[in-house]
Design brief:
- With 206 residues, the protein is mainly beta.
- Helices cover 0% and strands 45% of the residues.
- The chain has no helices and 16 strands.
Length: 206
C-alpha cells in the first residue's frame, strides 16, 4: 500500500481520475472527513492533499482531468460557483479558472474535455441563456461557445462523447428536431450551420 488516505473504520478513499502532470500522479480521493478532493503522489510515493477547494460539504469532487498548455484542467465545485473549470498550472498553483454560467449560482458542469489543435473542447451549459452546447478554449481568449446547435433560451443539443480524430472534433448531439446525430467539427473552418456537420443519425423520436 502506498498510502491509507482514509483510515476510518471500513472507510475507503476510492481514488480515481488518475493523470500524470509534471512528473507526479494526480487523482481524486476521499479523506477521513469524507471530502473528495485533489491529491498528488510524487515519484518517491509521497502522497499529499492539495488545498481543499470546497471545505463546507462533501468536497469539490474533481473530475474530467485533462492536460492542456502545461496545465491540468478539471471540473470541481467550490460551493460558490457550482461545477466549473479549475486549473493547476505548471508551477503547482491551483486556481478557479472560469465561470461559464456566471449569471446564476447553478453549475455549467463542463464535461468530455478533449484537446485538439491547441484548443480544449468541452460540453457546457449556460442554463436559461443558452442550454448545453459545445465550447472551446484556445489558451488565450476566454472560453466560448463553438456554435448553438439548438438555439432558443435553455434549449440544448446536449453534446457528449467528444473525441479528437483526424484533425476534427467528433461528438454526439441533438438537432432542433431532437434527432440524435454524430457530428464532426472542423476547427480550420469558421463555425456555421454546416460546421459542426451532422454525419450519422443515431435515433429519432416520433
Amino acid at each position: 500500500m502506498v498510502e491509507n488516505i482514509n483510515n476510518t473504520e471500513n472507510g475507503s478513499s476510492s481514488p480515481q481520475n488518475f493523470i500524470v502532470h509534471n512528473g507526479a500522479l494526480f487523482f481524486a480521493a476521499t479523506s477521513n472527513n469524507f471530502q473528495t478532493e485533489l491529491w498528488r503522489c510524487d515519484s518517491a510515493n509521497n502522497v499529499t492533499a492539495l488545498p481543499n477547494i470546497n471545505v463546507d460539504s462533501d468536497g469539490s469532487n474533481p473530475s474530467n482531468m485533462t492536460l492542456f498548455n502545461n496545465s491540468l484542467y478539471f471540473i470541481a465545485d467550490d460551493g460558490l460557483h457550482g461545477y466549473e473549470l479549475w486549473r493547476l498550472d505548471s508551477e503547482g498553483d491551483l486556481e478557479f479558472f472560469y465561470d461559464i454560467d456566471s449569471f446564476s449560482t447553478d453549475s455549467s458542469s463542463p464535461s468530455f474535455l478533449t484537446v485538439l489543435n491547441n484548443t480544449i473542447y468541452f460540453s457546457a451549459s449556460t442554463g436559461e441563456s443558452g442550454g448545453r452546447e459545445p465550447w472551446g478554449y484556445d489558451g488565450t481568449n476566454d472560453p466560448s461557445m463553438i456554435y448553438d446547435l439548438v438555439p432558443g433560451g435553455s434549449a440544448s443539443s446536449e453534446p457528449m462523447n467528444l473525441k479528437a480524430f483526424n484533425r476534427k472534433l467528433y461528438f454526439t448531439a441533438y438537432n432542433e428536431s431532437y434527432d440524435h446525430y454524430l457530428y464532426s467539427y472542423d476547427p480550420g473552418i469558421s463555425a456555421s450551420a454546416s460546421n459542426p456537420q451532422p454525419l450519422v443519425q443515431h435515433y429519432a423520436f416520433s
